[in-house]
Each structure stands twice: as C-alpha cells, then as structure tokens.
Design goal:
alpha/beta, Rossmann fold, 2 domains, 10 helices, globular, binds adenosine-5'-triphosphate
Length: 248
Amino acid sequence: MPGLLEIHNLSKSFDATKVINDFSMEVTEGTLCCLVGPNGAGKTTTMDLITGRIKPTSGKIVFANEDITAKHEHIIARAGIGRKFQVPAVLRDMTVRQNLEVAYSRQTNPFWNLFKFRVTGLKQKLDEIATLAGLTDRLNDRAGILSHGETQWLEIGMVLMQEPRLLLMDEPIAGMTEGEIEKTARIFKDLRKTATLVVVEHDMGFVREIADEVVVMHMGSLLAQGTIQQIEANPRVRDVYLGEQEAA
Ligand SMILES: Nc1ncnc2c1ncn2[C@@H]1O[C@H](COP(=O)(O)OP(=O)(O)OP(=O)(O)O)[C@@H](O)[C@H]1O
C-alpha cells in the first residue's frame, strides 16, 4: 500500500549550499511519524517543502497519490495538508470558540463552507474538535488568558477545523510543563484516529511516548527510519544524534 505522503529523492539548495540531499521518506495513513535529527539537519526545510512554502531543486512529493511537488501552497493546503507552527497565531481578544470559527471560515471557499455548515453543522464539529483538543471548558474564555499549553492546543484545534488529512507540527511541546506534555501526548494519540501526523520533535521522551514511526535526518539526508526501538538501537543514530541528546 502506498503511503499517504511519499517523498522521493528530494533535494533543496540555497545558493550553492545543499540543505536537503536526496531525501526520501514515507508516511502511512493513520500513523504518527516523528521527524528527528540534530540542529540544522533539514527538518523544518522538509516541512516547508511538503507544504509548498518553498520548492525543491529536484525530487518529488506525492500526497494521496497526487504529485504535489509543483503545486501552490494554498492548493496543497486545500488538498488536505495542515500545519501548526511553533509560534501560536491565535486571536487573543476573541474567545476560544470564535478562534475555532474563524479558522473554519478560512478554509476553501465561502460557498463550500455554507454547504458544509448545513450538512454537518458547525456547532457539532466545533464541539468534537474542542473535545479532541481538551478545550471544552474553555470555549467561552478569551484566548488571551489561556496558558501556554492551552494556546498550543487551541492552535491544533484551529488547524483541525480545516479538516486536514495530514497534520504537520513543529516542536509542539516546546515550553510546556510536564502536565501539559502528558496531556498533549493523550491528544495526539486521539488525533491519530482521524488524521495522519508528522511531528518535528527534539524531546526523545515525548517521541517514545507518541511515535508509531521515527524518521532520523542528518545533513539533509535520511539516516534511519523505523520504530523507536529500532532507532534507539541503531549505532549510527546513537553516534550522530542520540549520544548528543544524552550529553545535553
Ligand atoms: N532560507 C535559507 N537560506 C539559506 N539557508 C537556509 C535557509 N533555510 C534553512 N537554511 C539552512 O538549511 C539547514 C537546515 O535548516 P533547518 O531549519 O531545516 O534544520 P532543522 O533540522 O529544522 O534544525 P533545528 O532543529 O535547529 O530547527 C541549516 O543549515 C540552515 O541554516
């Protein structure tokens, strides 16, 4: 079975510097894949390439059996790839509910929204996503008073309102408390039932907790792909990444 996302021999150069070098990986539908690797390995650049923010020098990206390599960023988003950035962009003066509604209204075109509103019901969808993101008790609170963790969950909820089939996340637990990290792990496990996830993450404890599959990048190339047990037992990964993590 082909992966929901397939990256084939991707390369990207900035001026004369090759930062992604013949990189390939595959993500199976309904799984959570963690993308790890040392600083500067090319993880964020890979996310930028998947979402069409930047274009590769060579190689191919296939999503749901469709070649999206040359497509515009908004077409890729509409095809079902959502992204949550590290820095939240919630509207602080609006309530949690209003933020979710705004995110919903940003998707596709207004006529489609109207149609979907009638068919599925915005309220029902909003309640489902608030439950998934653990924000049911916060719907009527102003986003500006949320904790750091709650703000991150709201952002996840906002991306989910656009119904992505694949959700990309950059270091989602940065700055969170232990309790918030545990709750985020639970949210991710639930999310996997409805979406496929690719998470860039440095915290190997969290990766161990959430990942079905781990992809290790090093100097723009694939170093290893496998289960967390396979990755942690891989001597090359230990040399270039995990050893460095343990020493930190
Ligand atoms: N627009 C750009 N112009 C030039 N070089 C860039 C550009 N964007 C990224 N790079 C370089 O590409 C390399 C990979 O960067 P990238 O941010 O993808 O790494 P990363 O694995 O996400 O690192 P980190 O874990 O530190 O976030 C780095 O050496 C970076 O300096």
